[in-house]
Amino acid sequence: MKKVLLEMEDQKNSYEQKAKESLQKVLEEKMNAEQQLQSTQRSLALAEQKCEEWRSQYEALKEDWRTLGTQHRELESQLHVLQSKLQGADSRDLQMNQALRFLENEHQQLQAKIECLQGDRDLCSLDTQDLQGLLQNQSLQLQEQEKLLTKKGQQIYYHKF
């Protein structure tokens, strides 16, 4: 019986030892699980922080994009206005060039008339001083018209810019 009691005592000790080892193993697994949980929680917190940073950057970029879109539309509008002004200036420039050619042609015609009248003066012995005064007056008027046209052209040119 003593032997049986000893065997039972050994079995009891063996079971206790196995229970302790199992309990130790469970405690170690629990500690590992808790460490993994803490590590995962830290990772989650970092991921949430990164997510918030990315969200903030995304919102800032979205606002920048809106601002750039607005600026782009404003610049396009200004470009259209400037193109329209340029077309108007080109049209006025064309008109001014036509008017200048007309005046130059008229000036040439007046010069031809002057020459013709000077020839007639020599032939007809007219009072040369009166005739020259008249022709010079016409020439001066033409020059004044050219000056006025040039000034108006310059004013229009400077006014549009």
End-to-end Cα distance, whole Å, is 124 Å
* Percentage of residues in DSSP E strands: under 5%
Estimated structural class: mainly alpha
Total strands: the figure is 0
User: Using only CA atoms, what is the Rg?
Assistant: 53 Å
Specify the biggest β-sheet.
none
Given the C-alpha coordinates, what overall shape results? rod-shaped
Number of helices: 2
The residue fraction in helices comes out at over 70%
Can you characterise this structure?
With 161 residues, the chain is mostly helical. It has 2 helices and no strands. It has helices spanning 2-124, 128-160. Helix 1 runs antiparallel to helix 2 (128-160). It is rod-shaped. 0% of the residues are buried. The model has no long low-confidence stretch (mean pLDDT 88).
Annotate the secondary structure layout.
Elements: H1 2-124, H2 128-160
Helix pairs in contact: 1-2
Q: Which key phrases capture this entry?
A:
97% helix, TRAF3 interacting protein 3, mainly alpha, 161 residues
